[in-house]
Design brief:
Strand content: under 5%
Radius of gyration: 36 Å
Order of helices and strands: HHHH
Number of strands: 0
Oligomer: single chain
Shape: elongated
Mean pLDDT: 76
Largest sheet: none
Structural class: mainly alpha
Low-confidence stretches: none
Number of helices: 4
Distance between the termini: 76 Å
Helix content: 40-55%
């Protein structure tokens, strides 16, 4: 057995997360222990089993890291948005004629399609 994954599952048993010899179970060998191992497992960090007191996210970065747009960018965006709105309204003014043209173009397309296939 490879010591890296064997040690990992032994650490789970030592911490009380599992209560059997998982590496022996996987390899089909007789169990070396049942429950927690009788010998300590070295070179592992202690596992904190206590839940946090309060479960919330708190950013460690100061608030000034958020992007703040300068005034000139806001004014430029507003001007572009206004021009786009005026052009959109002008296009909508011509919308009824545009829909009539589309209806004629679609009907002509299908008429020509059936004429070519016949």
């Amino acid at each position: 057995m490879l010591p890296n994954w064997t040690t990992s599952v032994d650490m789970l048993a030592d911490a009380g997360i599992i209560d059997f010899d998982a590496s022996a179970y996987i390899m089909g060998a007789p169990a070396r222990f049942v429950g927690r191992p009788q010998y300590p497992i070295y070179n592992i960090p202690p596992i904190a089993l206590k839940p946090p007191v309060k479960d919330e996210y708190r950013s460690t970065l100061p608030d000034n890291t958020i992007v703040k747009n300068p005034l000139w960018k806001k004014i430029l965006f507003g001007a572009i948005l206004t021009v786009a709105g005026v052009l959109g309204i002008a296009k909508l003014h011509n919308a009824p004629q545009m829909f009539k043209n589309i209806k004629v173009k679609v009907s002509d397309f299908f008429k020509n399609l059936f004429k070519k296939s016949s």
